[in-house]
Specification:
By secondary structure, the protein is an alpha/beta fold. The protein contains 6 helices and 6 strands, in the order ββααβαβαβαβα. A 6-stranded mixed sheet has the order 2-1-3-6-4-5, sandwiched between helices. Helix 1 crosses helix 2 and helix 3 crosses helix 4.
């Protein structure tokens, strides 16, 4: 069992939760986690870069001069990649870098990423993160009280517009719902900040799916 402390917004410990490692696969599946991270980065690539090949540039296909007898190096037409204004020899073309994984593997990779954070002490649980109005200063103060000084992924049980607007101007801080968690986002941030409701819903969902 892993003990996870629950803090209030001022950083004081007010409760604790016990988490069974078996809910997240018992051990971290490093190979599966790497595969998910590679997919995550590949799907963020935009394959729209393109250059013109020799077949795409304007110009005559006539050979500039005869092959032998001129004393010059042999050369083809003006569209060759050796000449200024010619096409690119190995031209880039539009391509899709996207990769896919089965849903079950994505879930297992997500659980491994969360378990790795739990084992390394990278998970912080706060009792409540509700705001009456968007206020970046207040949310930044909460992060300071919880000693979250670098990058952080905030996981909540359901969409909260005030929280989202409070966090969007803070560098390297992202807000997402528990349902949208994925291994790439989790591993891309040093800390994970859960609300207590979100953390309990994650545990209950994994417990129900495993039973």
């Amino acid at each position: 069992m892993i003990d996870v402390a629950v803090h209030d917004r001022k950083g004081a410990e007010i409760d604790s939760l016990q988490v069974d490692e078996s809910l997240f696969g018992t051990s971290v599946r490093h190979s599966l986690l790497k595969q998910a991270i590679v997919m995550y980065h590949a799907n963020k690539r935009v394959g729209t870069a393109a250059t013109k090949s020799r077949g795409m540039v304007d110009g005559s296909t006539r050979k500039l001069f005869r092959q032998k007898g001129t004393g010059n190096a042999r050369v083809g037409n003006s569209r060759t990649g050796k000449r200024v204004g010619g096409g690119v020899t190995f031209a880039k073309v539009r391509r899709d870098f996207g990769k896919r994984m089965p849903k079950k593997q994505r879930r297992l990779a997500r659980d491994s990423a969360i378990l790795a954070k739990l084992l390394s002490g990278g998970v912080v649980v706060v009792d409540d993160l509700s705001f009456d109005a968007p206020k970046t200063k207040d949310f930044s103060q909460v992060l300071g009280n919880l000693k979250i000084e670098r990058s952080c992924l905030v996981a909540i049980s359901e969409n909260n517009e005030n929280l989202y607007k409070s966090a969007r101007n803070i560098p390297k801080v992202d807000v997402t719902t528990v349902a949208d968690l994925n291994a790439g986002d989790i591993c891309n941030r040093q800390k994970m900040l859960f609300t207590k409701d979100a953390f309990l819903s994650l545990i209950d969902r994994d417990a129900n799916s495993s039973s």
